[in-house]
Design a protein that fits this description.
The chain is α+β, with helices and mostly antiparallel strands. It is built from twelve helices and ten strands. The protein has helices at 4-20, 24-35, 40-46, 53-92, 110-124, 138-141, 152-155, 179-187, 227-242, 294-299, 316-324, 337-343, and strands at 128-129, 135-136, 172-173, 192-201, 212-222, 248-255, 258-271, 274-277, 282-292, 308-315. The N and C termini lie far apart (86 Å).
């Protein structure tokens, strides 16, 4: 007959075995030996039915307690072993990115190349490059950009939210690079002339959308800045980028953070499988832009009666596809070395205006 001493002995026996289990299969074998259908503890549980009521009163809770204790020990050990297994996997699958580039096979990703090209063009116009965090707060991603809480335009951003933190605040993966405008205006004195390239995120995935994509933001703040500056700057940019004269049109649009706002289209035509930019009778939207809204300037502590400015934002991935003729956006992020060696760029030939961008 089982008594309390047996139960204590069983507990310490299984605790020892669980502790000694060095991997997940070994741990599972211990679990089965204790708690499986034919396991030792399950066997004892099945003797409960034959016990006298008095005995049952004592042994019932004791055996149930034993079962629970052993199950808990198994679970705890399991999470330790899983953690160890993950660490081992991470260590064995790591790549030493400090190894020298194999010049024959290493290539710059088209997104990297295009961001470099954009930086070179804008640097030539006196812009510097700024970066901001991928994990943003609501203030920088929305509120300061004149999306008040509850504004319907917020919903259009398909935002990835983090769980609430201890202050009840939900951080987001930035849905655009526009928050870098806010960070720059709050930390620098005008005149400001910056571009901000980086990763952006929206909960959206199909042939033309990936949950992570890239944008380049632009911001100019000065006294006496007007729409003519915006148009001149962007027209100059787009022709330099496509390395040919590009006809553009500005179409009125709406963004909360600019007033007036516009989208810039470029003239294009289809030539068989490919797309030619600059000729034809079709228009394709390429970027959003506008004069910085007075509310945005005020949110950053700037007086709209003194300072004005313009801003713009564009999708890097799509511009890369257009310029270099890549048919599917999703290929960009598949990490397929055949695709990269076909569409990639030599790391030794850096984009520069004198020699031609690409
Ligand atoms: N942030 C906008 C978006 O992701 C793009 C944009 C439009 C940025 C107009 C701007 C702008 O700076 O002026 O949809």
């Amino acid at each position: 007959m089982t008594d309390m001493n047996d139960i204590a002995a069983l507990k310490s026996k299984f605790a020892g075995l669980i502790d000694e289990a060095n991997d997940l299969p070994a741990l599972d074998a211990v679990r089965v030996a204790a708690l499986g259908k034919k396991g030792e503890i399950s066997g004892l549980m099945s003797t409960l039915g034959k016990m006298s009521p008095d005995e049952k009163k004592v042994m019932g809770p004791a055996l149930n307690g034993l079962k629970k204790d052993v199950a808990l020990l198994v679970e705890t050990r399991k999470s330790v072993l899983e953690h160890i297994a993950l660490e081992a996997r991470l260590a064995s699958e790591s790549i030493d990115i400090s190894l020298p580039v194999n010049i024959k096979t290493g290539a710059l990703h088209p997104v990297t190349q295009v961001m470099e090209e954009m930086a070179v063009i804008f640097a030539d116009m006196g812009f510097s490059v700024k970066e901001g965090p991928d994990i943003e707060d609501d203030f920088h991603n929305f509120t300061a950009l004149n999306f008040p809480p509850g504004h319907p335009a917020r919903d259009m951003h398909d935002t990835f939210f983090f769980p609430e933190d201890e202050n009840g605040e939900r951080k987001v993966l930035r849905t655009h690079t526009s928050p870098v405008q806010i960070r720059t205006m709050m930390s620098e004195e005008p005149p400001i002339r910056i571009i901000a390239p980086g990763r952006t995120y929206r909960c959206d995935s199909d042939q033309t959308h990936t949950p992570m994509f890239h944008q380049v933001e632009g911001l100019v703040i000065d006294k006496g800045t007007h729409m003519g500056h915006l148009k001149g700057c962007l027209m100059e940019f787009i022709s330099a980028f496509f390395e040919t004269d590009v006809d553009v049109q500005f179409r009125p649009h709406h963004f909360p953070f600019t007033e007036p706002s516009a989208e810039m289209d470029v003239r294009y035509e289809r030539k068989g499988e490919s797309i030619a930019i600059g000729t034809g009778d079709k228009w394709m939207e390429i970027l959003g832009c506008g004069m910085v809204h007075p509310n945005v300037l005020r949110a950053c502590g700037l007086d709209p009666d003194v300072y004005q400015g313009f801003a713009f934002g564009m999708g890097v991935d799509r511009l890369a596809m257009l310029k270099y003729g890549m048919p599917d956006l999703r290929d960009m992020f598949n990490a397929d070395p055949r695709w990269l060696s076909h569409y990639g760029f030599s790391p030794l030939l850096q984009a520069n205006l004198a020699a031609g961008l690409s």
